[in-house]
Amino acid sequence: MDALDEVPKDDRISLTKKINRFLSNYPCQVICTSRIVGYAGNFIDGGKEVEIVPFDDEKTADYIKTWFNHAADQRLVATLSIYSPQQEVVSVHLFHCL
Fold first, then answer.
1. Origin, by domain of life (predicted)?
2. Digits of tens for pLDDT over the chain (98 positions)?
3. How far apart are CA 15 and CA 41, in angstroms?
4. Cβ-count burial of 64 within 10 angstroms (0-12 exposed, 13-18 middle, 19+ buried)?
5. Is the residue at 16 inside a domain?
6. Cα separation, 84 vs 17, whole angstroms
7. Backbone angles phi, psi at 84, to 5 degrees
8. Which positions ≥6 away from 57 have C-beta within 8 Å?
C-alpha cells in the first residue's frame, strides 16, 4: 500500500484498524509506504519500520548494471549507459516493482 501519509488524518485510525483486521483474517506480507513528512507511525501492528535512503551516483550505476545484466538484453545496458541522470531509471523501476 503506497502513500499512506496521504490518507486524511481523520481516517488514519480507521484505516489502521481495517488493515490489521484484514491481516488477522488473511495473514500475508504487506508493505506500506509513506513519506517521512506526514508519517504518523506504524499502520501494521508489530510491523517493522525501515527507512530507504537514496543511492549515490556510484550505487545507482551499480544497481542499473546488475539489474540489467540479469534481466535485460545487453544492448539495453549499453543504451542506458549513455543517459544521465541514471537515478530516473532506478526510480521508475522501483515504482513498478512496488
1. Bacteria
2. 888 888 888 898 898 899 999 999 999 988 888 888 777 777 888 888 888 888 888 888 888 888 777 765 566 656 666 655 554 544 444 444 44
3. 13
4. buried
5. yes
6. 44
7. -145, 145
8. 85, 86, 87
Which triple of cell numbers denotes residue 85? 541522470
DSSP 60: H
Number of domains present in the structure of the chain: 1
74 contact partners, CB below 8 Å, separation of at least 6: none
Smallest Cα–Cα separation from 49: which of 70, 71, 34? 34
Hey, what amino acid is at 22?
A: F
Q: CA 69 to CA 17: how far, in whole Å?
A: 43
CA 43 from chain center: how many Å?
Answer: 16
Q: For residue 98, tell me if it sits in a domain.
A: no
Domain, as residue range, for 15: 4-93
In a domain, 14, yes or no: yes
